[in-house]
Amino acid sequence: MDHPLIDLINQKIREAEADGAFENLEGAGKPLPKEDDPENALLNRLVKEAGGVPEFVSLSRELSRLREELRETDDRARRQDILKDMSMTEARIEIARKEYKR
Q1: Angle at 97 between CA 45 and CA 54, to 5 degrees
Q2: How wide is the angle at C-alpha 24 spanned by C-alphas 20 and 30, nearest 5°?
Q3: What is the pLDDT of residues 17-26, one digit of tens each?
């Protein structure tokens, strides 16, 4: 079943073509870039453009933040908590890296 707005969508595309909106586009006449994961190419592009990163990257940033907090903290109990958090974060980074390589 077609989308309920398919006629309107096609009309807008025809109008854009008539107005020259698709002329002189960057990359016109060139082959599309090769995709490693064609089924998820659009999703991957949107995540990348939105600043998304693999989990191990965001976890590494968290580990850096924890290291900085550890350097600045004199409270012995808080330092112990930070060290535990760092240990767990390091383990999560290793797991995330292995998952990412699959």
Answers
A1: 25
A2: 130
A3: 999 999 988 8
